[in-house]
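Postdoc handover notes: sequence design on the structure in folder B. Input tokens:
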């Protein structure tokens, strides 16, 4: 899926509140200026010969300090108020995402029978390489023996997919013909049906079951299936490989076969697996021959993907950062002014006899 974000200009969510706060601040300033400009403030005391006091250098220095600190304090307070006004108005930014989605689904189809288990750790490494080479496709995993089990349905959460493949790798790493690990038995439970006890590794039925795991059948989507098996079938299933290939082709599913290097050389139906890949337009490779994962990724990327038109995704986000910065600067300046006043007061007291 290709995501394209466009961002509109920032605007206030509550402009009326910002305007109200501005009016309040201006009214307070006007009231304060009127009081400050009064020539005869209430409660004032008059002192004779004050001109001599005003001419003293010490008096002038103190007046100048007070004016500077008062001016800085006023500026700091106004800056803090401006930040508060911006925060009160709630600056917001609207982002629009145009979603260009490629409709392409990939089902990983893993043979969990005893003949393939010794090589499935390597198979899963190949599957991981395939997943890491893709981008935007939905991916699912189905494991099977004489019955099929969906480990996870089609999803585009690649972190989840890789976690589940790591889980599968740990399970098959615990395989043993005599004493399989509990993790292996727990992972493969459900892939063996006791009602079909005499049969195992039903390749064609497993393939058909994986094809049936594709959803949104009514949509025009590109569909590919990665079939990892040795091709050895013990017993007679509902389908044979030729019928399974036809079933997949009719559903528009391209089958890529990855055969492990063990049993295919003995009892595996290599010709049948190659025929499946050929009839569905897929590829055939053997594990350990090199390039199988890369070849599958290239084939999947060449698979035509329909484009799904989706309405744009619109989201509105608060952007309080500038208001916080401005308010923080104002508060910081006020703190510095108060510290300066305190230091000057202490210094003045030390000078007094």
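Designed sequence:
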């Amino acid at each position: 899926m290709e995501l394209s974000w466009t961002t509109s200009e920032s605007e206030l969510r509550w402009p009326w509140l910002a305007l109200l706060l501005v009016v309040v601040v201006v009214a307070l300033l006007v009231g304060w200026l009127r009081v400050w400009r009064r020539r005869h403030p209430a409660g004032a005391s008059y002192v004779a010969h004050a001109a001599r006091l005003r001419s003293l250098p010490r008096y002038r220095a103190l007046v100048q300090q007070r004016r500077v600190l008062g001016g800085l304090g006023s500026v700091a307070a106004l800056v803090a108020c401006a930040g508060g006004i911006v925060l009160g108005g709630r600056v917001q930014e609207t982002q629009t995402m145009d979603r260009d989605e490629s409709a392409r689904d990939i089902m990983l189809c893993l043979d969990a029978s005893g003949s393939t288990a010794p090589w499935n750790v390597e198979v899963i490494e190949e599957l991981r390489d395939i997943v890491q080479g893709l981008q935007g496709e939905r991916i699912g995993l189905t494991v099977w023996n004489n019955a099929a089990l969906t480990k996870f349905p089609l999803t585009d959460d690649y972190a989840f997919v890789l976690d589940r493949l790591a889980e599968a790798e740990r399970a098959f790493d615990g395989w043993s013909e005599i004493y399989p690990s509990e993790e292996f038995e727990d992972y493969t439970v459900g892939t063996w049906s006791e009602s079909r006890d005499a049969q195992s590794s039903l390749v064609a039925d497993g393939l058909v079951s994986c094809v049936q795991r594709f959803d949104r059948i009514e949509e025009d989507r590109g569909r590919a299936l990665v079939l990892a098996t040795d091709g050895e079938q013990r017993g007679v299933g509902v389908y044979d490989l030729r019928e399974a290939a036809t079933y997949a082709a009719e559903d528009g599913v391209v089958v890529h076969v990855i055969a492990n290097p063990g049993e295919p050389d003995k009892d595996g139906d290599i010709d049948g697996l190659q025929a499946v890949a050929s009839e569905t337009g897929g590829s055939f490779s053997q594990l350990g021959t090199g390039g199988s994962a890369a070849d599958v990724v290239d084939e999947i990327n060449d698979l035509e993907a329909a484009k799904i038109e989706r309405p744009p995704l619109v989201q509105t986000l608060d952007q309080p950062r500038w208001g916080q910065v401005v308010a923080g600067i104002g508060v910081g300046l006020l703190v510095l002014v108060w510290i300066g006043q305190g230091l000057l007061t202490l210094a003045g007291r030390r000078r007094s006899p």
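Context for whoever picks this up: The two ends are 80 Å apart (CA to CA). Don't rerun without checking with the PI first.
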